[in-house]
Design a protein that fits this description.
This protein is of the alpha/beta class. The protein has helices at 26-39, 45-53, 71-83, 103-113, 118-133, 137-147, 158-186, 191-198, 202-210, 231-249, 264-272, 299-307, and strands at 5-9, 41-42, 61-67, 89-92, 214-217, 254-256, 277-279, 296-298. Strand 6 (254-256), helix 11 and strand 7 form a beta-alpha-beta unit. It is globular, with a radius of gyration of 20 Å. It binds zinc ion (ZN).
């Protein structure tokens, strides 16, 4: 049973944007739009918002949304949208546009651009992790094997799983950051130098708005768990993002929740800022939600449906 929703996109590749986990080429994106067009009513973001507010969205009405203000979206996906005369939502967090790097995205870029392949990255990462963990390493390795960690993700390689286990279960954020910083220094990789290749600038955002796309909120610094912040901290996240984006593109009326995370405080803050539509990052809650809980399907699930 279909239910109105948006499709959520992140990474694209082509030209200077190298392929990375889950990224789409322009051709694959175009094929996906054909596939969606054949099964749904693919609406522009402006039309979707109009129908949303007048309660006129049908179960097959969908729209497209792009999170995190990534330059690859502007370079690869926007020309495909232009060809089809289709406008979309772009949800942007301000900190990276104001020159503050986001580690998650920087590390992803470093992994895909700083090494011959992912195995070379893993070899160097595992060697540094061994230096940190020393004699504890073999105990962690045994626990990892006994847990059959991430067995629900059959497409991960053994190294993918071991890397995630070390990062998320053993090292913790601080030691993980230290290892990544050491690796980046060894490779003379500077986060500041790649920021302009990773994220859109204010002039890109202005251009998107001028072409009829809707630029919306995605918090200031993209916390992975914004619901852990108190009301005032969350308010600061969205207020700073709102003030920045309105100064760049004029009015701001839409948003998506970073990592799909929010609580009642978040919803109150969005109402106070006059936001008119907000998007989740999954399809798990289809009916009960209010105006800031419109479901979204991850593009990876569309890829799976197309192949299945
Ligand atoms: Zn995001």
């Amino acid at each position: 049973m279909p239910f109105t929703h948006a499709i959520m996109f992140h990474h694209f590749h082509g030209g200077r944007h190298l392929p990375s986990q889950g990224s789409l080429s322009a051709a694959a994106f175009s094929d996906m739009l054909d596939w969606l067009d054949a099964r749904y009513n693919l609406l522009g973001a402006g039309e979707y918002l109009r129908r949303f507010e007048s309660g006129a969205l049908g179960p097959r009405d969908i729209c497209l949304s792009f999170d995190d203000g990534l330059l690859c979206q502007y370079d690869i996906a926007v020309p495909v949208l232009e060809e089809r005369n289709l406008d979309a939502f772009f949800f942007v967090y301000s900190s990276v546009i104001m020159g503050l790097p986001n580690n998650l995205e920087i590390y992803r870029h470093f992994r895909t651009h700083g090494f011959r392949d992912i195995d070379e990255f893993y070899a160097e990462f595992f060697a540094l992790a061994e230096d940190v963990l020393k004699s504890d390493l073999s105990r962690h390795r045994r626990a990892f094997e006994e847990a059959d960690y991430l067995r629900e993700f059959p497409f991960y390689t053994e190294s993918d799983k071991w890397f995630r286990y070390l990062r998320d279960q053993v090292l913790g954020p601080e030691r993980y950051d230290e290892i990544m910083t050491a690796l980046m220094e060894r490779k003379a990789f500077s986060p500041q130098d790649v920021m302009a290749d990773l994220w859109m600038s204010e002039s890109h955002l202005k251009d998107l708005a001028a072409r009829g796309h809707i630029v919306g909120l995605h918090s200031f610094s993209h916390p992975t768990k914004i619901s852990r912040l108190d009301y005032d901290q969350q308010y600061a996240e969205y207020r700073k993002n709102y003030d920045h984006l309105t100064s760049v593109v004029g009015s701001v009326s839409a948003m998506s929740h970073p990592c799909g995370d929010y609580n009642d405080d978040t919803l109150k803050i969005l109402a106070a800022l006059g936001i008119r539509i907000g998007f989740r990052s999954n399809m798990s809650r289809l009916r009960a939600g209010g105006p800031f809980e419109v479901p979204r399907e991850d593009h990876a699930n569309i890829v799976r449906a197309m192949n299945g």
